[in-house]
Amino acid sequence: MNNDSITSCNWPVEPATNETLPGPDYYVKAILFPIILAINTVGNFLILVVLGTDKNKTSVHVYLISVACFDLSVVWLELYTYLPLVLPDQVKDETYLRNFINFYGAQTFWQYTSLQASNWTLIVFGLERLYATIRPLQFRTAMSIRRAIYLELVVVMLAVLSNLKYPISWYYALQHSPDLALRDLAAEAQYLTPGLLRWHNFQNEADIATQIGDWIAIFTINCCLLIVLRRHLKTRKTLFHAPESVPAASRGIHSSGSALRLVIACSALYVFTMALPITCNILRIAKEPPHCSYYITTKTLDLLSGLGTLSLLVNYSVGIFLYCLTWKRFRERIKSWVRLWFTLAAEHEQRSSSEMTVMENVSRSSVINETVNAMPPV
């Protein structure tokens, strides 16, 4: 946050900070982000492999594969802003700085698009599970893989349209800055036209409103799904004690229950992990003009923002654990893939060992033959 905005709000003057020393959020990001990146990469890769190779695909596979792709994009694009944090000397290089500035608009645009598409896919997935549980017969005739793909395309298109401001305003400001390089990422607004500036300010507040709306929607859907799951468990208990007349119905309820528990777990994770980032954004908006309604020190806000960013990234990284906890079929396929990989690795190691043994025997035989040939005749 710049000092002008603080002065215009008549907040207390904060003591000057040493820019050469790392801030309170530095150690949090520097240590935890590589761990989150590794979990995100391995976990979402396994999700894509397991679900992508499943022969019995449903609409659930469409949504979960899409979420895995979006989650990979969200965390890997954060790496672009993480590197200057841990490699500050690299940022001073003119070539790296130029590339960073040129790519920043596209990086921000696709990261926000992926984030929004992942959230909205979770909302669509939750609504589908709710509809599938309440009206199973109508759901079987109405939903299909093709329709799920169409819905996902609509979600991506809406996410793209809602974030067009980022590349347009950034590259317009970049082209109209004096040296064609925005040294300060916060200086973008001063190079915008009045129309783009209004769009810029509206987008900043719209992002907060969208985050709050997504959080409320997912929380509401999750509460409804919990109610449905409670009734679902009662139905299973009734069928379990009933005469042996509905085994197929019991299996159908069990299979739909896995997807229901999965979406409840994903929604609960979102509700808990996104609470802190949303709170930080609200505090930042409240501190800045024209609101000036709540004061919080920059040091505290930076620390909360760092924790909020990591909490947000956790939401898009630990899906693999939820899948294994709530989805028995997914666990079984993970085990089969792991066994297959270990078997192939063992066979490769055994084959390499056999080839090395053969080569050693051949080499030993050639040495013996050369020695025999070199001996003088008796």
UniProtKB/TrEMBL annotation:
Transmembrane domains' residue ranges: 31-51, 63-83, 109-127, 148-168, 208-229, 259-286, 306-325
Any one annotated GO CC term: membrane
Boundaries of every G-protein coupled receptors family 1 profile domain copy: 43-164
SUPFAM superfamilies: Family A G protein-coupled receptor-like
Subcellular localization(s) per the UniProt record: Membrane
Keywords assigned by UniProt, alphabetized: Membrane, Transmembrane, Transmembrane helix
GO molecular function: G protein-coupled receptor activity
Designated name of the protein: G-protein coupled receptors family 1 profile domain-containing protein
Organism, scientific name: Hypsibius exemplaris
